[in-house]
Specification:
Length: 225
């Protein structure tokens, strides 16, 4: 195989990153659609929702999505390698990994801990167990870790969007919608279920747009693998 043939091959890491963004967006939509939302979180109905398959599927989708987003930033770093934007993308990936790890610790507790509490409440027909579940999820340490994680996710998204904006090879706006939506990840938890589904759908569209721009740019600007 000649050097020119090698140079014309697509960069697999960049395209893997594009796919990571695309799948992450879809998973965030699944998270918002699949999770049952109950207004009164101290009721037996809330406990039933925690024990449901939809609750588990939704939160596992969110966990995988949070893993994939920083992988996408890592692919952006590879795409920007040797340019002034490499450091910004690398910093976005590092901060994104930390933010996702902290946030996932809370989601993991909701998947496994609340599920066990919900199952016990349903079995015993005991609505007071829902109060235990809320004390568990609203613990000050747990909430602090969760909020810090979300803040770091927001910072990482802004850094990535800045790198894309300055790149001159990707559409400059293609990183902005995803960054704006991830910045609003915390307040969207206070929206009604329909509003949260809209937020998830917008995340999916934004992530797919960035993924498409990365894929097209890599195809138009071949690099050595």
């Amino acid at each position: 195989m000649s050097v020119s043939d090698l140079a014309s091959r697509p960069n697999r890491r960049v395209r893997s990153g594009a796919l990571a963004f695309a799948f992450a967006g879809v998973l965030f939509l699944i998270y918002e659609v699949a999770a049952p939302r109950v207004t009164d979180q101290t009721s037996l109905e809330a406990a039933e929702s925690w024990a449901s398959a939809g609750w588990a599927v939704a939160h596992l989708a969110a966990i995988v999505g949070l893993i994939l987003i920083p992988l996408g930033y890592g692919a952006l770093r590879r795409y920007f390698e040797g340019t002034r934007n490499e450091n910004s993308a690398a910093l976005a990936a590092t901060i994104g990994y930390i933010g996702s790890a902290l946030t996932i610790s809370y989601y993991g507790a909701e998947v496994y801990g609340l599920k066990a509490i919900g199952q016990r409440a349903v079995t015993d027909n005991d609505a007071t167990m829902a109060e235990v579940g809320n004390a568990f999820r609203n613990d000050s340490t747990a909430v602090s870790v969760f909020v810090i994680g979300l803040a770091l996710i927001a910072v990482a998204a802004v850094l990535a969007a800045m790198a894309v904006w300055r790149s001159g090879t990707l559409h400059r706006w293609s990183g902005v919608p995803l960054a704006a939506l991830l910045v609003t990840m915390l307040p969207q938890y206070f929206l009604p279920h329909a509003g949260r589904i809209v937020w998830g759908a917008l995340v999916a569209v934004a992530a797919l747009w960035l993924a498409m721009q990365m894929w097209k740019a890599d195809a138009g600007a071949p690099q050595v693998s």
